Amino acid sequence: MTEDHRPIALVMALRGQGILDPRVLSAMERTPRDLFVDAPFEAAAYENSALPIACGQTISQPYIVAYMSEALEVTEKHRVLEIGTGSGYQAAILSKLCRMVYSIERHRPLLQAAEGRFKALKLHNVVTRHGDGLKGWPEQAPFDRIILTAVVPEIPAEILAQLKPGGILIAPVGQAPGSERFSQHLVKIMQTESGPKWDTLIPVVFVPMVPGVPKEVRKSDGEESKI
Ligand code: SAH
């Protein structure tokens, strides 16, 4: 079998785009993105673009995943909350940088697929939850780092309250794609003694954070499906 050189090419491209943290670059190199996309998109897995996944959602562009991971300033001691598991790719990258990733997803089929990938890749420090991430994960709070991977009009106070003093939160803030005059930026919030300190980073495009969980109907054979 020939070796797949695409991860190395991706990392070189990311470096060219200004991602310099060696831990982040190494995590990107060691995480097979082709496992996180659906079969029709396998050939495009290492291109620097977002791709569609199930339930009308997207796996983020590798550059944005690397950028957010770098901006989060994660160490191997940190417990990190991710809201919006999606394919699980961002969680997989973070799992190589921190002690424990807590990842929440509202679409059960996406979560189950992501859990399968974490298992296959032996990422034992990712724990998941099916539910509404807008409430955070109070039983596991406070967190050293929090990352939102779907856009919010503003940072929910309930989530910010789950960030430790000295902690960092990264989130896309703005309007949903398709809305009039839509614009989104990544925001970095540092929890300081004198209150949260805000920084606005780069413009981005993320799917919206949606409150609640989709309704599930239980079929007679016991299978669950979304309506
Ligand atoms: N981090 C993902 C990107 C996922 S796209 C990856 O690496 O692939 C954003 C995800 O956020 C979608 O899967 C969407 O279903 C999820 N999401 C949206 N609103 C949510 C909510 N309230 N709680 C949990 N997940 C949510």
Describe this structure in words.
By secondary structure, the protein is an alpha/beta fold. It has a single domain (6-226), classed as Rossmann fold, CATH 3.40.50.150. The chain is 23% helix and 27% strand. The strands form three sheets. It has a seven-stranded mixed sheet, covered by helices on one side. Strands 1-2 form a two-stranded antiparallel sheet. A hairpin with a 2-residue loop joins β8 (184-192) and β9 (195-203). α1 (6-16) runs antiparallel to α2. The longest helix is centred in the middle third of the chain and has 13 residues, at 108-120.
Describe how the helices and strands are arranged.
Elements: H1 6-16, H2 22-29, E1 51-52, E2 58-59, H3 62-71, E3 79-83, H4 89-95, E4 100-105, H5 108-120, E5 126-130, E6 143-148, H6 157-160, E7 163-174, E8 184-192, E9 195-203, E10 216-218, E11 224-226
Parallel strand pairs: 3-4, 3-6, 4-5, 6-7
Antiparallel strand pairs: 1-2, 7-8, 8-9, 10-11
Span between N and C termini? 42 Å
Number of H- or I-type helical stretches: 6
Low-confidence stretches: 221-227
Return the CATH topology: Rossmann fold
Bound molecules: S-adenosyl-L-homocysteine
The secondary-structure element order is HHEEHEHEHEEHEEEEE
So, CATH architecture? 3-Layer(aba) Sandwich
What structural category do the secondary elements indicate?
alpha/beta
Based on the model shown, name its key terms:
Rossmann fold; globular; 7-stranded mixed beta sheet; binds S-adenosyl-L-homocysteine; 227 residues; alpha/beta; two-stranded antiparallel sheet
